[in-house]
Specification:
Porin; globular
C-alpha cells in the first residue's frame, strides 16, 4: 500500500492552522562505507542518503484528546528501494481515567531484551532502513486499552497489512537473489486486507513487569520462495502465512540487575515452534570515580527449529556493554556481538551517539559479519561489513 502522504500532510497542516500545535523532528544526512568488495556488480562501496523525520502534535487538554502525525522520507543515492516515504504515525487519541482509545496509523513496540524482540509483532519491519529490525512501518489500527488495578488490557484491530521492505538489486545488505516486492503471495485469499487482531495484558507487580500477548493474522516475517522470472531468471517472492503467536515478556528489576525474558509459541509457518531470548543487564555506576555508568549485558537466543530456522539466531549467545557517560553531550555507547558457539559465526555491532551543541547529534554505527558458514542464512552478507555516520539536525 502506498499511503497518500500528501493528503495526510494537507490534513494535518489544516489542523495546525486551525487549532495550533507543535512540530518537532530531525533532518539527517547519512554516509555508509563498505570496506569489502560487493558480491554483485551493480552494488557500490559507499552510499549517501538524506532523511526527514518530523512530528506534529496537538493536544486538547480539556477533552483528553490529542492528534499525532509522524511522516518519514528517505532519499538514497544508489538503491531505489531505499528511497521511500511512509506514514509512521497519524492517529487520534482519547484518554480517560479507566480507558484509552487510539484510531489511525501507529507504531507499537513490545519487548524487553536487547539482542532481538521476539514478541514485537504489531508493526512490519522497515528492512531497508536498518538490518537490526528497530525501524518499523506505520500500521493502521484501532487500539482500545482498558486500565484497572488488575493491569492494562489492550485490544488491537488491524485492518490492513504492510508488506516488508527489502533492499533492491543495487543495495547492500541484500539477499543473494532479488526479492520481488511487487508480486507477494499470501496464504489468505483476502491477501493484504485480512483482518488481523491482537491482545496484550500487562502489569507491574513490585519489581516485576509482565506482558502476555496473542496475535492472530498475517505473519510479519515472510518466507522467501524461489520463483522463475519473466526472462528465465530466478527471483525470491515473499510469502505471508496466517499465524497464531502467543508471547510472554518479563523484566525483573533488582538494584543494579535487570533480568529479562521474551518467549513465543507460533503456529502456521510449517511446523509449530517455540523461541526464547533470556538474559540480564548489570549496571556499574560511577565507574572509576567518573559520572559514567557501565552496563554488562548477556543473553541466550534459542529457536526450537534449529538449523531449519530462517534466521541465524537459533542457539546463540549475545554479549554486550552499554556505557552512558552522563556528560553534557549525552554521549552513549552500545557494543555487542551475537555468537554461534558451534560454528563461530559472529554478528558484531557498535552504536555511538553524541550531541553536538543544542540542535545537532552525531550517530555512528558499525556492523560486521564474521566467520559465517555457507549454510547460515546470513552467509550472503559476508562482504557487507560497514561503517555508518549520521549527522542529524533537530528542530
Amino acid at each position: 500500500m502506498k499511503f497518500p502522504l500528501r493528503y495526510s500532510l494537507l490534513l494535518v497542516l489544516f489542523c495546525a492552522a486551525a487549532q495550533g500545535g507543535e512540530w518537532s523532528g530531525n533532518i539527517a544526512g547519512e554516509l555508509r562505507l563498505f570496506p569489502s568488495e560487493p558480491l554483485h556488480g551493480e552494488q557500490h562501496a559507499g552510499n549517501l542518503s538524506l532523511s526527514l523525520d518530523p512530528e506534529f502534535h496537538h493536544e486538547w487538554e480539556e477533552r483528553g484528546q490529542s492528534l499525532v502525525f509522524n511522516p518519514f522520507l528517505r532519499l538514497d543515492q544508489h538503491d531505489p528501494e531505499r528511497t521511500h516515504a511512509d506514514v509512521r504515525e497519524l492517529y487520534w487519541q482519547k484518554v480517560a481515567e479507566r480507558w484509552e482509545l487510539r484510531l489511525g496509523i501507529r507504531t507499537v513496540f513490545w519487548g524487553v531484551t536487547e539482542s532481538q524482540h521476539l514478541v514485537d509483532i504489531i508493526n512490519q519491519t522497515d528492512l531497508v532502513e536498518n538490518l537490526d529490525g528497530e525501524d518499523k512501518l506505520g500500521q493502521p489500527m484501532m487500539d482500545l486499552a482498558l486500565i484497572g488495578e488488575w493491569g492494562t488490557l489492550e485490544l488491537f484491530i488491524l485492518p490492513f497489512f504492510r508488506e516488508r521492505t527489502f533492499p533492491g538489486a543495487r543495495g547492500r545488505l541484500r539477499a543473494p537473489l532479488s526479492v520481488d516486492t511487487d508480486d507477494p503471495e499470501y496464504e489468505s485469499s483476502a491477501e493484504d486486507h485480512h483482518l488481523d487482531w491482537a491482545l496484550r495484558w500487562s502489569r507491574s507487580v513490585g519489581d516485576w513487569d509482565i506482558g502476555l500477548s496473542h496475535f492472530s493474522g498475517t505473519g510479519r516475517e515472510p518466507q522467501l520462495k524461489l520463483r522463475l522470472g519473466g526472462s528465465d531468471f530466478l527471483k525470491l517472492v515473499p510469502y505471508y502465512d496466517q499465524i497464531q503467536q502467543t508471547g510472554l515478556d518479563v523484566q525483573l528489576t533488582k538494584g543494579p540487575w535487570l533480568w529479562k525474558l521474551e518467549a513465543i509459541h507460533r503456529s502456521g509457518q510449517a511446523e509449530s515452534f517455540a523461541a526464547v531470548t533470556a538474559g540480564f543487564e548489570y549496571t556499574f555506576t560511577g565507574v572509576f570515580g567518573t559520572a559514567a555508568d557501565v552496563g554488562i549485558l548477556a543473553e541466550y537466543l534459542y529457536d526450537s527449529r534449529g538449523d531449519d530456522a530462517p534466521l541465524p539466531f537459533e542457539n546463540d549467545v549475545f554479549l554486550g556493554v552499554r556505557v552512558g557517560f552522563n556528560d553534557t553531550q549525552t554521549t552513549e555507547l552500545l557494543a555487542g556481538a551475537i555468537v554461534d558457539p558451534q560454528s563461530g559465526a559472529t554478528f558484531a555491532s557498535l552504536e555511538l551517539s553524541r550531541r553536538l551543541g543544542s540542535n545537532w547529534r552525531l550517530n555512528v554505527e558499525a556492523r560486521a559479519f564474521l566467520h559465517f558458514p555457507e549454510t547460515d542464512p546470513a552467509y550472503s552478507l559476508r562482504n557487507d561489513d560497514y561503517l555508518q555516520a549520521e549527522l542529524a539536525w533537530y528542530f
